[in-house]
Design goal:
Layout (H helix, E strand, L loop, with lengths): L2 E6 L3 H10 L6 E6 L2 H10 L4 E4 L8 H10 L5 E6 L4 H9 L4 E4 L4 H10 L5
Parallel strand pairs: 1-2, 1-3, 3-4, 4-5
Helix pairs in contact: 2-3
Length: 122
């Protein structure tokens, strides 16, 4: 059974780069969203196992998505992928329930290590 993935970023190029960085052997079903509102609508329509979430997006940002996931008790492993590397941002996403913070540009080895650590990828 494939792992259901939701990649959320307002940049189509960033989404494409993240998808290419996923382990090739990983059996996945991938959907994409370009903002927070789309991400929550997609999650509510069909639960996902893992969400890769950018922080800085127009409209609803990544912090607001994390707050909504927590408030609505939606269970999903969230990996924040962002260029915002400030310690306060990292701490806040962890407080809001993200399992990891991966800085941009995307590092395939780092993504793979996080996924293996949480047992969602071989």
């Amino acid at each position: 059974m494939p792992t259901r993935i939701l990649v959320v970023d307002d940049s189509a190029m960033a989404r494409k780069m993240l998808i290419k960085a996923l382990p090739a052997s990983w059996d996945v079903e991938i959907e994409q969203a370009s903002n927070g509102e789309e991400a929550l609508a997609a999650y509510r329509a069909a639960e996902f196992d893992v969400m890769f979430l950018d922080l800085t997006m127009p409209g609803m940002d990544g912090f607001q998505v994390l707050e909504a996931l927590r408030r609505e008790e939606l269970n999903c492993l969230v990996v924040v992928v962002s260029a915002d590397i400030q310690p306060a941002a990292r701490a806040r996403v962890r407080e809001l329930g993200a399992i990891a913070f991966v800085p941009k540009p995307i590092d395939a080895a780092r993504i793979g290590a996080v996924l293996r650590e949480y047992g969602v990828c071989p």
